Amino acid sequence: MLKHIKRLLFDHPIKLNTIIINRYVVKEVLGFGGFGITYIVQDLRNEEHHYVLKQLRPSRKGTKKGKNSFLTEADILTSLTNTEFPTLRNAFIWNNHYCIVMDYIHGKTFEDLIFEEDRKFSEQEALKALLDVTCLVQILHKKGIVHNDLRIPNIILREKSISIIDFGLARRVEERKKQEEIQDDLYMLAHFLLFLLYSTYTPSEKEKSWEEELSIHDNVKAIIRKMFGTDPCYQNIEALQNDIQKHLKK
């Protein structure tokens, strides 16, 4: 309760048209996350360029966890060179606010596609989308990075590819603990897949389990159970990819 009150008192967004470090003009407030507030900003050095600026919530900047999360996000983004991840452009402190600037990735989040555009995903389409996402997660895991927030608002469908954004909860993991830590990403990906599969579901009066409600192949149910850990978990992202590919070939 106290945390909620503190956020209401201190976490006001930066006003529109504010100029930050004599370079970035705030054009739009994108949203509020657990640790940050995000904006679309225009670069005065090249007015055609618009970026995402993420500000550490004022209520968080006095906490060690908040600062560490922000510094970790900047460090991780610096290490990612694939164009399907945001490129870090700048990091600085402005008026005692911790800020990072990254590329704005154009496209639609799967949250927008499902809940605003009423997009329907067949079983095949949902599995293909999941497979594309796992290719990006595989890159992260090979670098010892766990994203930890692979939800539908953080996965973007672009014109010809998929992107993952918001590394605010991402962390680096030790090699000896990687197998255990990656389970968090697999668990989140199970929810991602279920959101896509439920896009074609018509609710009934009686609530049932997802296995009873969804008319999907038994192989797909087995994949989801392994991702959730209700059946023996996948040991790595490659094992998940193999099962998806086997099913898609049938």
Description:
Residues 24-250 form the Protein kinase domain. InterPro entries: Kinase-like_dom_sf, Prot_kinase_dom, Protein_kinase_ATP_BS. It holds the Pfam family Pkinase. It is a single chain. The protein is built from nine helices and eleven strands. 39% of the residues lie in helices and 21% in strands. It is globular, with a radius of gyration of 20 Å. The longest helix has 20 residues, at 123-142. A hairpin with a 2-residue loop joins strand 5 (88-94) and strand 6. The mean pLDDT is 92. Helix 4 (123-142) packs antiparallel against helix 9 (237-249) and helix 8 (218-228) runs antiparallel to helix 9. The termini are far apart. It has two domains: 8-103, 2-Layer Sandwich (Phosphorylase Kinase, domain 1), CATH 3.30.200; 108-249, Transferase(Phosphotransferase), domain 1, CATH 1.10.510.
Q: State the CATH architecture of the largest domain.
A: Orthogonal Bundle
Mean pLDDT: 92
CATH class of the largest domain: Mainly Alpha
End-to-end separation in angstroms reads: 52 Å
**What summary fits the major beta sheet?**
6 strands, antiparallel
Indicate the CATH topology of the largest domain. Answer: Transferase(Phosphotransferase), domain 1
Any idea what the CATH superfamily of the largest domain is called?
Transferase(Phosphotransferase) domain 1
Q: Strand order, biggest sheet?
A: 1-2-3-4-6-5
Based on CA atoms alone, the radius of gyration comes out at 20 Å
Outline the low-pLDDT stretches. none
Q: Please, how many domains?
A: 2
| N-to-C order of helices and strands | HEEEEHEEEHHEEEEHHHHH
Number of strands: 11
Helix content: 25-40%
Outline type:
globular
What structural class do helix, strand and pairing data support? Answer: alpha+beta
| Strand percentage | 15-25%
GO molecular function, one term: protein kinase activity
Keywords: ATP-binding, Nucleotide-binding
Protein name: Protein kinase domain-containing protein
Pfam families: Pkinase
